[in-house]
Amino acid sequence: LEIVRLDTEVEAARIGESRGVFAPVFSTQLGRSGAATPSTNLLFGERGVNVHDWFSSTGVRQRLPWGSGTWSISWDSSRTTTNSPITSFDPTLQSGFQLAFSQPLLRDRTIDAARHQYTIAKRNLETSDLRFREAVVQTTAAVKQAYWTLKATRANIAVQERSLELAEELARENKVKVDAGQIPPLDLVQAQAEVAQRREGLIRANTIAEDAEDALRRLIVEPSDVAFWGLRLEAVDEPPALVTFPDVDAAVSKALVDRYDLTRAGHELENAQATVKFLDNQRLPDVRLETSYSGNGLGGTQFLRSGGFPGLVTGTRSRGFGNALGQVFTNDYPTWSFGLTVSYPLGRSFEDASFVRADVERRQAAQKIASLRVQAAESVRRAGRQVRSTAERVEAARATAMLAEERLQSEQRRFGVGLSTTFL
Fold first, then answer.
1. 218, 343 Cβ separation under 8 angstroms
2. What pTM did the predictor assign?
């Protein structure tokens, strides 16, 4: 039961894993880069161009739990220095932010891999809970069966002990009669052989009872207890009398509704149907709406030039990082995009083959439920017949025991007056 309960906790953790794909993801990056380029331009002379950057990027992105859309927002900034004679800023401060959204219109819109896994995980948790309840029922039945098995083996010990006592009593009587010359010595040998046989039966009965006690002990005693194997179990309850026989038809109807294995099979069918729905959706063209907007700003130390290209630097003007931020949010340098992307496999795709396989598995799960219903009905009907036949056997055995006791007493009286033999 502890093992099955831990399975339930595992399935609950898998739900958390499935939901984790919808959690917002924060990312950030900070770095520095440098590049030295040899001169290939008359303006640069023989010296090369050196560029050094400090850059950072911070953003958040998230997959939505509905519609399978994805949004992201990011903020980028950088500081660049260079020795290029044609640059207008040195250092250059750049800043910008970007909003983007992607929405599938056909494939993945109603169901995608993440939502499919989340649905399966939730249903598997319910299945795990059913499996635990089923384990409780099975364990309870096993404990009851082990208890009554122990009760029966202990009763068999009492029977074997009584049988040995009768055989020993007969051996004593025969020894007295042999010593008196009333019966031949062969009768004493037969009685002693019977004593040995009954003693062997008692040894076997004790061994079987110890095995039955261990079986019950394993089911009900905490194994970490140091006195686990030394604990003595006494079966004190007596079997109840069967007043009425069970209604087999009603029991079959109840089993077809309440049996946990049938409910679990139903969950497997629902999972198979969800997989068929998902793979059928995956056969659609991948059509996505892509949209984005970004704002940019520029700042730093600007060179003021005069004359022709590239001009002479006549002064500088400082534009701080605040100016760059202002340009970002005043829509000075907007960049936007809006469009559709379409992709579709040519010919028979992997999704088509997967859909065919999943549909076969769905039909197989449906057939499994039909088979389980027949098996459940058959097992309940068989159990009902066993209850009835066992109750009738109990009554027959009770009557047989009474007749055997009367026959023993009669035979003992006949033996006492010399009308019967040791063998009889």
1. no
2. 0.72
